[in-house]
């Protein structure tokens, strides 16, 4: 299951203007829908979004509680500050492989018993591995929190990882790779594109699931070593959200998690981005695609690497450049009939260097070079003149409006909080991020755009149907 960061949790914010622009039927009034005063304060950054409290157990485990009594349900999430970025050299996919093996039982919980117990209670459980974190989570009726805490803590303290289950699970993972990547032309191209930008053995250039030869090379000793050095209380964050009381969560955390032995943690040691991309341009033809795809990605700073202040400006830039209707790419590429879709994306909460990505799907019959030239023009104009005040205001308004969507669901809060904290970011960054976004200025956006889109190492890619002419690079 994919990770959900603040960026992905709020991605639907761009749809809000669409809904707001729909005209009511004749004769029907359209009363304005305004946030409640409390929510308005949160959007302005004057009040915390979740009002979370946090404390640390003696063994180093950080516990976070975000209460919400809208429904009698709790979310229980255990994040480890270890993802695919921590995979050993030549063993890409280790973090993801271990995630699978953590479901093979523990000292007092039989294989499959945790998932079965949660299902019997009408709940849900799952796990995900991202570049930066691995997380295990359950959503259950509020009174069943002790059950999932006990079983998850037992898994934390000592997974079995039975030797006889390693090869069958390796086969499952290889099949997962075949279904999700090898059999999908766009996924194969994205994997090659990432490796072309960062290098195939740079931690950001390797796929989270791993290359096939490296998946085959992972041993049980590799998995046990990763667990021993990364799955430590001081390297984990427990997040509980929903209908739970502070005193009860404190008591349960002490009862079940305080006994997990503390042990040394191997710190993250992520290398800096390369001075130049492995390949500045990659063009592939594939008989399995009918429509062309355009990608351009530039290396970029984040809230944990490089010029951290630029991260907020780059988030605003991504929205005003390719954040749905009203954005520059939508106006110049989609509304003109050149493309079916056009987007810009950026994840500022990544650990280490990240990328700023432009993407577009040309309409059938539109020459690829015409689309690339239009993208070049969009970027050139932005770098020369900078954005307009109205564009900045629109981006800030729409991004922060997504906070209301996050507050409505039980799943967004733990993922936003846990992913950020496990990535080394402070709690206040999540609670008051609307304040940071609203503080971004036009000069900051222009400076960040020129630094990343104008000067940073970048790769341009095209995935084309067989027989399509290779687009000429415009100098």
UniProtKB/TrEMBL annotation:
Cofactors required: Zn(2+)
Listed SUPFAM superfamilies: LuxS/MPP-like metallohydrolase
Gene Ontology biological process: proteolysis
Keyword terms of this UniProt record: Hydrolase, Metalloprotease, Protease
Domain Peptidase M16 N-terminal: from-to ranges: 63-187
Signal peptide: none
A GO molecular-function annotation: metal ion binding
Residues in Peptidase M16 C-terminal domain copies: 218-398
Entry annotated with the keyword Hydrolase: yes
Top-rank lineage group of the source organism: Bacteria
Database matches in InterPro entries: Metalloenz_LuxS/M16 (IPR011249), MPP/UQCRC_Complex (IPR050361), Pept_M16_N (IPR011765), Pept_M16_Zn_BS (IPR001431), Peptidase_M16_C (IPR007863), TAT_signal (IPR006311)
Family: Belongs to the peptidase M16 family.
Protein name: Insulinase family protein
């Amino acid at each position: 299951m994919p990770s959900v960061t603040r960026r992905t949790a709020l991605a639907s914010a761009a749809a809000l203007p669409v809904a707001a622009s729909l005209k009511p039927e004749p004769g029907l009034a359209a009363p304005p829908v305004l946030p409640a005063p409390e929510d308005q304060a949160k959007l302005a950054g004057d009040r915390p979004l979740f009002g979370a409290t946090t404390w640390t157990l003696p063994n180093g485990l950080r516990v976070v509680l975000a209460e919400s009594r809208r429904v009698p349900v709790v979310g229980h999430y255990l994040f480890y500050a270890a993802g695919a970025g921590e995979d050993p050299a030549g063993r890409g996919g280790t973090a993801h492989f271990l995630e699978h093996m953590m479901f093979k039982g523990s000292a007092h919980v039989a294989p499959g018993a945790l998932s079965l117990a949660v299902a019997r209670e009408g709940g849900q459980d799952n796990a995900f591995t991202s570049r930066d974190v691995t997380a295990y989570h359950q959503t259950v009726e509020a009174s069943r929190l002790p059950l999932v805490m006990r079983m998850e803590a037992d898994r934390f303290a000592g997974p079995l990882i039975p030797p006889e289950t390693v090869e069958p699970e390796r086969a499952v993972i290889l099949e997962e790779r075949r279904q999700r990547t090898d059999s999908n032309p766009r996924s194969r191209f994205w994997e090659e594109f990432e490796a072309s930008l960062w290098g195939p053995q740079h931690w950001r250039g390797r796929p989270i699931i791993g290359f096939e030869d490296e998946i085959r090379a992972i041993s049980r000793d590799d998995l046990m070593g990763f667990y021993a050095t990364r799955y430590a209380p001081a390297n984990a964050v427990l997040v509980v959200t929903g209908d739970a009381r502070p005193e009860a969560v404190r008591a349960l955390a002490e009862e079940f998690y305080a006994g997990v032995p503390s042990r040394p943690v191997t710190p993250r040691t992520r290398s800096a981005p390369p001075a130049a991309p492995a390949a500045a341009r990659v063009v592939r033809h594939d008989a399995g695609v009918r429509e062309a795809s355009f990608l351009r990605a530039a290396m970029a700073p984040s809230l944990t690497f490089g010029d951290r202040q630029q991260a907020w400006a780059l988030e605003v830039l991504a929205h005003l450049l390719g954040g749905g209707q009203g954005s520059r790419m939508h106006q110049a590429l989609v509304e003109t009939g050149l493309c079916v879709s056009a987007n810009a994306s950026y994840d500022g909460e990544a650990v280490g260097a990240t990328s700023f990505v432009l993407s577009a799907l040309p309409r059938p019959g539109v020459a690829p070079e015409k689309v690339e030239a239009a993208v070049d023009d969009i970027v050139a104009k932005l770098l020369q003149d900078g954005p307009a005040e109205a564009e900045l205001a629109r981006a800030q308004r729409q991004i922060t409006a997504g906070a209301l969507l996050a507050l409505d669901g039980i799943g967004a809060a733990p993922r936003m909080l846990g992913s950020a904290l496990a990535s080394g970011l402070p709690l206040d960054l999540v609670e008051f991020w609307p304040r940071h976004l609203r503080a971004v200025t036009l000069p900051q956006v222009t400076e960040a755009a020129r630094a990343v889109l104008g000067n940073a190492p970048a790769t341009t890619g095209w995935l084309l149907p067989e027989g399509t002419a290779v687009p000429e690079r415009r100098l």
